[in-house]
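Let us practice reading a record.
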Amino acid sequence: MDKLGIVVAMEEEKDAVKELMEDVELEESYELDFYKGKIQGKKCILVQSGVGKVNAARTTQLLIDKYKVDKVINVGAAASINPLLNIGDILIGKYVVQHDFDITAFGHSKGYITGVGNSVECDSISLERIEKIINNKKQRDYNVKFGIVATGDVFCTEISMRDEIRATFDADVVDMECGAIGQVCYLDNIPFIVIRGVSDTPDGNNANTFDKNLELASKRCVEILNEILEDRS
């Protein structure tokens, strides 16, 4: 049976995932709390990384090294930069990019990472299965889209930055962890998927919108996570 590693950045996201878990045991390591348990009978280890790429990368590598997980799932909130994605909608990543990685001075495109490339592809086998699961359930109060997550060490508030990231990467949402988690998984040859709920959109005042909708976005992510893990096909 596969062992799943679940990485979140914030407490609200962690609490939402924990509500799904059974037989939970807490282990502390390197000042991080690792919650071992099961969701829908599947073994999983949940950990809260903290915000940002370094925290996310460090935590993901510890999760892989310490618990020998077979797959990593990133769950959390994100800001929509696609006008077709509204607050409460879900974005399941097909690719992750790092919009703030810039070695264009050496002739590479924005976001290109030496040894990795322009993007990291999420696990295609899992995505094919997830798409079937999502399509089989037609009635929802929100939309689920598959697309591109753009990560950077900045909470994006500026409309000009939003539009530039959208134009450069054809991205659907922005966050602060996915790209780093994806890069670690790519380098370690560990399958990786991402589920992000829309909490806000960069409009100059979205910090308030984010705070207001973080819990909603987290709960919607967990609904999708539960659907995926309960499926027996």
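A brief commentary: The chain is about 35% helix and 30% strand.
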